[in-house]
Design brief:
Layout (H helix, E strand, L loop, with lengths): L8 H10 L4 E5 L4 E3 L3 H12 L6 E5 L5 H10 L5
Length: about 80
């Protein structure tokens, strides 16, 4: 899922914390940021809030975790 504009940062991070398995952002250059790591979260949020946020795509290693983000996206449609 390509991200565009994450305004509700805390709600996004809440979805990440509820995920059972790995969740990561991957840049168009192939860099991966594991969102289960707090350090990576700071870097990822900074990147998402910058002018290059649209260069990142969200991935979940566990299919059921995707529903957490689908719910987040349905409540925040401008994010996609």
């Amino acid at each position: 899922m390509k991200l565009n504009n994450v305004v509700e940062v805390q709600k996004f991070l809440d979805a990440v914390s509820k995920a059972k398995y790995d969740v990561w952002l991957e840049s168009s250059e192939g860099d991966k940021l594991n969102l289960k790591s707090q350090l990576s979260q700071y870097i990822a949020i900074g990147a998402l809030l910058s002018n290059h946020g649209e260069d990142y795509e969200l991935f979940c290693s566990y299919k059921d975790d995707e529903y957490l983000f689908l719910d987040f996206f349905s409540q925040n449609p401008d994010t996609l």
